Amino acid sequence: MAVRSSIADVPKVALSYLPEIHYLTNEVRLAAPDQGFPKKSRLLSSKDYTPVFENPDFRVSSRHFLLLARSSKHAGARLGIVVGKKNIAKAVQRNRLKRLIRESFRAKKQHFDTIDLIVLARKGLAELDKQTIRHQLDVLFSELLQKKRTVS
Length: 152
Description:
By secondary structure, the protein is α+β, with helices and mostly antiparallel strands. The protein is 35% helix and 22% strand. It has a four-stranded mixed β-sheet, with helices on both faces. α3 links the parallel β6 and β7. α3 crosses α4. The longest helix is centred in the last third of the chain and has 22 residues.
C-alpha cells in the first residue's frame, strides 16, 4: 500500500530518493518494500532455462499449469515464465497471467531456498478469474514445496 503525503512535508534532500513524485497532484508515493521483480530473481536467458527444461528435479502440474523446478547454485529462488501465444491468444491476457504468476511467486519466494522455477501456462487459462488462478498457483507452489521437503 502506498504512503501518501503532501510534497511540502518532504525535505528537499529526500526528494531525490523518492521513486515516484506526482507533480500535478502534488503527492509523493512511496513504493512498498520487496514488491519488485529484480533480475536476480528471474531466469533471463536460454542458458538459464535449458537445465530446468532438460533435467528438472521437481515437476508439478494441473490442468492449466506446469511447474518445473531444479536446484540451483544461485542465491535465492529464480522464476521463469512461459506463456505461449498458441495457448493464450491475446497479449493483454498473457501479460495479466504473467503479473499474477509473478505476484504469487513473490508471496512464496521466501519459502524457496535456491531453486530455479519455470511456470508454463496451458490452454484454457485465460478464461479463469483472478482468484482461481491465484488459488491454483498457491496449491501448485505448496505441492512443489512439499516435494522439495521430502527429497531434502
